[in-house]
Write a structure and sequence with these properties.
Layout: E1 3-4, H1 6-14, E2 22-26, E3 30-31, H2 33-41, E4 45-49, H3 52-66, E5 71-73, E6 78-79, E7 86-90, E8 93-96, H4 100-124, H5 128-150, E9 158-159, E10 162-163, H6 164-172, H7 174-178, H8 191-214, H9 224-245
Parallel strand pairs: 1-3, 2-4, 5-8
Antiparallel strand pairs: 5-6, 7-8, 9-10
Helix pairs in contact: 1-2, 4-5, 4-8, 5-9, 6-9, 8-9
Domain Cobalamin adenosyltransferase-like: 81-242
Keywords: ATP-binding, Nucleotide-binding, Transferase
Pfam family, one: Cob_adeno_trans
Length: 250
């Protein structure tokens, strides 16, 4: 009886550049635990079939048929021209521009713009350390966008030398780490604080949009990695506000 190992699964997947979401295994074939774990990590569902040769032939026929056209819509329509009211979800797959994931991408794009605007403001105030931190955050946000578009898992991260746990801890207990209590942002705190707070609230909007984009019918979430990253980022902006107010960026 044939045994399908993780290395063989990886080899089979590497031969196909398409965005695979299903991996077919013949019913009399054993798949190792490590191979199953790898497929699970890649969000690929295992499907057992009676005759894998028939499945492969069907998939190959579909691929040949689809290559005759430049685009395919989520409804199965095959097109050679992209309608103005549609855009690419990934590859040549088209969706309407009000698709929830397209809305999410628009909000991420807007957040990137706001970060750059804050950098310009910081430059006017000669706050080079803050500009550098914002640049790191900008690259982080761009990587979130990249992972969403390419449907790649967002890896564990640190931001401004803080782990995910440290970000959560310090943002929740400012008195312990910065010597000040949490307060609502006021104009009296200055335009730099107001600008960073604008980034914080914009990040919250992106996070809510991500939840809407990846929420299942019963509230389950596909991309918890992205949602958690955005949650930590909004907390990080609180930490930056505390640092500004206590002179750590002077």
């Amino acid at each position: 009886m044939a045994v399908l190992t993780e290395s063989e699964v990886r080899k089979k997947l590497s031969k196909n550049s398409d965005n695979i979401r299903e991996f077919y295994v013949q019913k009399n074939q054993i798949i190792t635990p490590s191979a199953k774990s790898y497929l699970s990590q890649e969000n690929i569902e295992i499907k057992y079939v009676d005759n894998i040769e028939n499945i492969n032939k069907t998939k190959q026929d579909e691929l040949v048929e689809n290559k005759k056209y430049k685009y395919i819509s989520v409804f199965g329509a095959k097109l050679n021209e992209k309608p103005e009211h549609m855009t690419s979800l990934h590859g040549n797959l088209l969706v309407f521009k009000d698709h929830k994931r397209i809305i999410l991408r628009g909000k991420i794009d807007s957040l990137e713009s706001k970060i750059i605007q804050s950098q310009i403001l910081c430059q006017k105030h000669n706050m080079s350390k803050l500009i550098k931190d914002l640049e790191e955050i900008l690259n982080f946000v761009r990587n979130i966008m990249r992972c969403e578009v390419l449907e790649e898992k967002l890896k564990d991260f640190t931001l401004l030398d803080l782990s995910e746990h440290e970000i959560r801890e310090q943002s929740h207990y400012p008195k312990k780490y910065f010597g000040i209590d949490h307060e609502f942002v006021s104009y009296k705190m200055g335009e730099i604080v107001v600008s960073i707070n604008d980034l914080r609230s914009a990040t919250r909007e992106v996070e809510l949009s991500a939840y809407q984009a990846f929420k299942g019918e019963y509230g389950e979430v596909e991309r918890q990695d992205i949602i958690k990253a955005l949650n930590r980022l909004s907390s990080l902006f609180w930490i930056m506000i505390y640092k500004i107010r206590t002179g750590k960026y002077d």
